[in-house]
Design brief:
The structure holds 2 protein chains of 2 kinds.
Chain A (H helix, E strand, L loop, with lengths): L19 E2 L2 H28 L4 H23 L3 E4 L3 E6 L3 E8 L3 E7 L2 H6 L1 E8 L7 E7 H16 L3
Antiparallel strand pairs in A: 1-2, 2-3, 3-4, 5-6, 6-7
Helix pairs in contact in A: 1-2
Chain B lengths: L15 H24 L11 H21 L2 E5 L2 E6 L5 E6 L3 E8 L1 H6 L1 E8 L8 E6 H23 L9 H4 L1 H11 L4 E2 L2 H9 L3 H18 L1 H5 L3 H13 L1 H28 L3 E5 L2 E6 L4 E7 L3 E7 L2 H5 L2 E8 L3 H7 L1 E7 H11 L9 E4 L3 H24 L10 H18 L1 E4 L3 E6 L5 E6 L3 E9 H5 L2 E8 L2 E9 H16 L7
Antiparallel strand pairs in B: 1-2, 2-3, 4-5, 4-10, 5-6, 7-8, 8-9, 9-10, 11-12, 11-17, 12-13, 14-15, 15-16, 16-17, 18-19, 19-20
Helix pairs in contact in B: 1-2, 4-6, 7-11, 8-11, 15-16
Chain lengths: 165, 512
């Protein structure tokens, strides 16, 4: 019932959320993942080229262009990715072509999960997944944390959000 | 509880055997459907027995199984749990803690209506979709059981919330929900649809949607029997396909009229089946809706489970002053489709009553409103107009059709351009200190209103196209799905983002 008098214009500018960048290793992990995908694609196309009449010159330039494009987007996009923990919410932002910024208030968090992909194990990286009651599309994942800081972050978010139950 | 005798294991009503039997029979028929359709009338023989013999054998087995299932089905109360025991070969015991019960609904299919019994369905918190259903109870008994379960649920939850306040003097308090629940029975419904209302609703349905829905369902069924149904006609189909393509401009109106006719009939049937004898009750504990012809459903939604409402209309409905309201209740995304309850044929007064009951503070404070940028119209024009037109033009080009085939594309594009322009003009977000509302739609206007404290989280999205024009899209997530407001000025989107976050974070009202 409080706060009724505050109107949109009078609101304190909270826009200065200090987003922390992700671990730089996460960029290399993403590049590795993209690279592996492109190598597998090249392998399949090579097999096709050998078994049919498809000349290499038909797809190699497109493939090269695609891998350059993917890498450039990945490198430029990495600077945009970041997360922020404030006393009352958790935020994550990402996306070069399609920017997306989400904030989950701590009093709306259902549970928090730590997860690590096979590639993540190689780079010693992990992610923290924050679940709300809003369904799968509203769940938030913070990528690119070291395993240790991911576990710490998970415990911290759990501790903060538990105060609201 | 005394009249329910739940201390001892109870069986369902004796006619439950028949209900279970028909349920099993339907399962068997569904299972053998392909065989029946294909072999019907033919000389089907298996192990020297004909189709009829097999039908009798399956029927007898189903009857025996049903009787055993009935005998082995018990429900009772043990401590803080409602317990259901069932299973002929495998013994199952389902424990439902009272405080885990979300809603209790009743339903009646045709068999249950003829036998005068109802099914009771218990919906629990938790994602596992274990079916908790008692198939056949006398209506009287079911209503008492429903009230009993809801009362116990509230008592349990209250005890959990305030354990130190337990005492004999609290007895009066805990009786309150029970009284409210019983009130449903003698209360006058807020909305009641007569047959006349039903016909009006049926004729003013969105027929295009009904038609497409029917088409989709038929499509799904037909492909199951594709080999048997379509193979004999294949040569003709090829021929007609060619002539059809050649004269599509001439045939289009005929097809459209036929489609419309079928669509209208299908909407009417759907509306009557679903909303026959609809009764909608509203009081401080929540809402209750009963409806249906062959299958009568009763939905009861506690006040707190309701997350928000969407009310919508169409030109025909608007003409006779009818609106449709959809109740969005909390639950997983998959459950949304089955769980969302909608009431058609709502007069403006009834709508106003509902809105005033659930949004008592809706008009506290002035609304600030923001509209979507024209980029919305441009994008829709591209996806709905230019792209399909281009695809069709390409098909014509590769088939070397004559010039006049392309002509209908021009009015199509103009029509789409006009529609998307008018549509984009209607997209609007309104916000004040208590609620945030989104209005959309020119021909089919819809209106959503969400109280700030029901919001879960907020997202701000910006594509490169939006970045050039300094726009952003705002997504509001709730426990009952999300709502999108596209193409706001970036500054506005950002202010709203932080304002709504602030509102969620500073509230301690329980959203569920």
């Amino acid at each position: 019932m409080e706060n009724l008098q505050i109107s949109v214009d009078e609101l304190p500018a909270q826009e200065k959320v200090d987003y922390k960048p992700l671990e730089e290793d996460y960029l290399y992990m993403r590049l590795t993942s993209r690279g592996l995908f492109m190598i597998i694609l090249a392998g399949i196309l090579t097999l096709v080229s050998f078994s049919t009449e498809l000349p290499f010159i038909y797809w190699t330039p497109v493939w090269a262009l695609l891998i350059v494009l993917l890498f450039v987007l990945e490198i430029l996009g990495f600077k945009i990715k970041g997360y922020a923990i404030r006393s009352k919410d958790v935020s994550y932002k990402s996306g070069l072509l399609f920017f997306n910024m989400t904030s989950v208030p701590l009093n709306r968090i259902q549970h928090v999960e730590f997860s690590q992909s096979p590639l993540g194990r190689l780079f010693d990286l992990a992610s923290v997944k924050v679940f709300t009651a809003g369904g799968a599309s509203s769940d938030m994942t913070i990528h690119g944390l070291t395993k240790e800081s991911a576990q710490k972050l998970r415990d911290y978010i759990i501790k903060l959000s538990a105060e609201y139950e | 509880m005394s009249s329910l005798k739940l201390e001892q294991p109870q069986r369902q009503s004796a006619v439950g055997v028949a209900v279970i039997f028909f349920k099993n029979l339907r399962r068997a028929v569904n299972f053998f459907l392909a065989v029946i359709v294909v072999q019907f009338g033919g000389n089907f023989k298996m192990l020297g027995l004909s189709l009829w013999h097999w039908a009798i054998i399956v029927g007898v087995i189903a009857l025996i199984v049903s009787y055993l299932q009935y005998r082995k089905f018990f429900f009772y109360v043990k401590g803080d749990n409602f317990v259901i025991e069932k299973g002929v070969l495998k013994h199952d015991r389902i424990n439902v803690p009272f405080d885990r019960i979300q809603t209790v609904n009743t339903a009646q299919n045709l068999v249950q209506q003829l036998l005068g019994v109802v099914a009771l369905k218990i919906d629990t918190a938790g994602s596992q979709s274990q079916e908790i259903e008692i198939s056949a109870l006398q209506r009287n008994y079911a209503e008492q059981l429903e009230d009993f379960l809801m009362t116990r649920k509230f008592e349990e939850q209250k005890q959990k919330a305030a354990p130190e306040e337990q005492g004999p003097h609290e007895q009066k308090e805990t009786n309150k929900p029970k009284q409210e629940n019983s009130q449903w029975r003698n209360q006058e419904p807020l909305v009641r649809l007569s047959v006349k209302d039903l016909l009006k609703v049926g004729f003013t349905e969105n027929h295009l949607r009904s038609g497409l829905l029917l088409f989709a369902i038929l499509n799904g069924y037909i492909w199951q029997f594709e080999e048997y149904l379509l193979t004999p006609f294949e040569p003709y189909l090829e021929k007609t396909a060619n002539t059809f393509l050649a004269s599509w401009v001439l045939l289009l109106p005929v097809v459209a009229v036929l489609f419309l006719l079928i669509s209208v009939i299908s909407s009417l049937v759907r509306v009557v089946l679903r909303y026959y004898n609809l009764k909608f009750f509203l009081n401080s504990s929540g809402v209750l809706m009963q409806s249906g012809l062959l299958k009568r459903n009763e939905y009861r939604i506690p006040h707190r489970k309701i997350q928000y409402f969407r009310w919508s209309s169409n030109p025909l409905r608007n003409l006779i002053g009818y609106k449709t309201i959809r109740i969005k209740q909390a639950g997983g995304e998959q459950a949304q489709a089955q769980k969302s309850v909608s009431i058609p044929g709502l007069k403006n007064r009834a709508l106003l009553t509902i809105i005033q009951t659930f949004y008592p503070q809706r008009h506290q404070g002035k609304f600030n409103s923001y509209t979507a940028d024209l980029l919305l119209a441009q994008q829709y024009f591209f996806w709905v107009g230019v792209l399909p037109a281009l695809a069709i033009a390409l098909i014509f080009y590769f088939n070397q059709f004559e010039f006049w085939f392309y002509l209908p594309l021009l009015p199509f594009l103009i029509l789409v351009a006009y529609w998307v322009y008018r549509y984009s003009q209607t997209v609007q977000l309104k916000v004040n200190q208590r609620v945030v509302e989104i209005k959309k739609g020119w021909i089919f206007p819809s209106h959503v209103s969400v109280q700030h404290y029901k919001l879960q989280n907020i997202a701000l999205k910006q594509s490169i196209f939006q970045k050039r024009k300094n726009l952003a899209t705002l997504v509001l997530y709730t426990a009952a799905g999300y709502e999108v407001m596209p193409h706001l000025p970036y500054g506005v989107a950002q202010t709203l983002y932080h304002y709504l976050l602030f509102k969620i974070e500073s509230t301690n009202e329980s959203w569920m």
